[in-house]
């Protein structure tokens, strides 16, 4: 956890939440009691902020400061509202290309994907509020600053974003090995949203059931899968290739 995105102390975290700071996650000391601590817990539940109860040793490793049993991580960026972003992109006249990340957990993969997304003109990235990699110092570094240039939205569930994309006339394509469809047989020329899954589990099966199309990359070697950020780059640049042929 980088110092520039860290906040510590029960009252400081309460004030940060009440000041509309975007809190990615809060670590709370196991077994801690008290009126102020209970107030913080209630506020975290009300705002649906990701919370972990950890031993005091974990908190002491996160900061040398007097943390009072609470350490939080403030997001260095402001997140966009999904509906407003989709509407503004559609109204701009550009052909949308959104990226949905289903609980991607590694911050370096996340940062690399954001960097590629910026280079390929992605309209916005959608992540889930809980269970995914945070936007922190490591994300910023790996993205080479692209995190400040690509709109990022947080939603309660990726399914919500899928349904909203489909209702907005945007085709949702899942990048998955669980299909016979080759990426090079899929059209990316119309408004699209690509879903990438987590490093270990891939895309949730319940999401795969509701997407419009599934596509996989051909693997010619012995290893059965690519790193998710590499696979994402291949998908995004195939969409770029197809869209460039429209304009030429």
How do the helices and strands line up, and which of them pair or pack?
Blueprint: E1 6-8, H1 10-18, E2 23-29, H2 35-46, E3 50-54, H3 56-62, E4 70-74, H4 82-92, E5 97-101, H5 107-119, E6 124-128, H6 137-142, E7 152-155, H7 158-167, E8 171-175, E9 192-196, H8 205-208, E10 213-215, H9 228-247
Parallel strand pairs: 2-3, 5-6, 5-9, 6-7, 8-9, 8-10
Antiparallel strand pairs: 1-4, 2-4
Helix pairs in contact: 1-2, 5-9
Task: Please explain how this structure is put together.
- The chain is α/β, with parallel strands linked by helices.
- It is 37% helix and 19% strand.
- It contains 9 helices and 10 strands.
- It has helices at residues 10-18, 35-46, 56-62, 82-92, 107-119, 137-142, 158-167, 205-208, 228-247; strands spanning 6-8, 23-29, 50-54, 70-74, 97-101, 124-128, 152-155, 171-175, 192-196, 213-215.
- Helix 1 runs parallel beside helix 2 (35-46).
- The chain is elongated, with a radius of gyration of 20 Å.
Descriptive tags:
single chain, about 250 residues, alpha/beta, 60s Ribosomal Protein L30, Chain: A, Alpha/beta knot, 2 domains, six-stranded parallel beta sheet, four-stranded mixed beta sheet, 9 helices, 10 strands, about 35% helix
State the domain count: 2
Report the major sheet: 6 strands, parallel
Residues in β-strands, percent: 15-25%
Low-confidence stretches at least 5 residues in length (pLDDT < 50)? none
Task: Note the overall shape.
Answer: elongated
The CATH superfamily label of the largest domain reads SPOUT methyltransferase, trefoil knot domain
The CATH topology of the largest domain is Alpha/beta knot
Radius of gyration: 20 Å
Number of helices: 9
Query: Mind telling me which CATH architecture of the largest domain this is?
Result: 3-Layer(aba) Sandwich
What is the succession of H and E elements? EHEHEHEHEHEHEHEEHEH
Distance between the termini: 46 Å
Oligomer: single chain
**Structural class of the secondary structure composition?**
alpha/beta
Determine and state the CATH class of the largest domain: Alpha Beta
Indicate the mean pLDDT: 90
Helix percentage: 25-40%
The largest sheet has its strands arranged as: 7-6-5-9-8-10
Number of strands: 10
């Amino acid at each position: 956890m980088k110092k520039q995105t860290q906040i510590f102390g029960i009252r400081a975290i309460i004030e940060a939440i009440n000041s509309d700071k975007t809190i990615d996650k809060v670590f709370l000391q196991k077994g801690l009691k008290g009126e102020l601590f209970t107030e913080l817990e209630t506020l975290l539940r009300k705002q649906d902020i990701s919370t972990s109860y950890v031993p005091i040793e974990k908190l002491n490793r996160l900061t040398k400061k007097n943390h009072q049993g609470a350490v939080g991580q403030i997001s260095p960026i402001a997140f966009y509202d999904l509906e407003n972003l989709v509407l503004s992109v559609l109204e701009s006249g550009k052909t949308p290309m959104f990226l949905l990340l289903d609980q991607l957990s590694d911050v370096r993969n996340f940062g690399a994907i954001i960097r590629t997304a910026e280079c390929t003109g992605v309209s916005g990235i959608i992540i889930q509020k809980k269970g995914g990699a945070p936007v922190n110092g490591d994300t910023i570094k790996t993205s080479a600053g692209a995190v400040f240039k690509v709109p990022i939205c947080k939603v309660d569930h990726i399914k919500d974003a899928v349904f909203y994309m489909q209702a907005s006339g945007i085709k949702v394509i899942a990048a998955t090995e669980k299909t016979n469809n080759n990426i090079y047989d899929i059209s990316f020329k119309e408004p699209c949203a690509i879903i990438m899954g987590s490093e270990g589990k891939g895309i949730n099966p319940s999401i795969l059931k509701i997407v419009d199309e599934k596509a996989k990359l051909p693997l010619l070697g012995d290893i059965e899968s690519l790193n998710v950020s590499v696979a994402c780059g291949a998908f995004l640049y195939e969409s770029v290739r197809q869209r460039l042929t429209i304009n030429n």
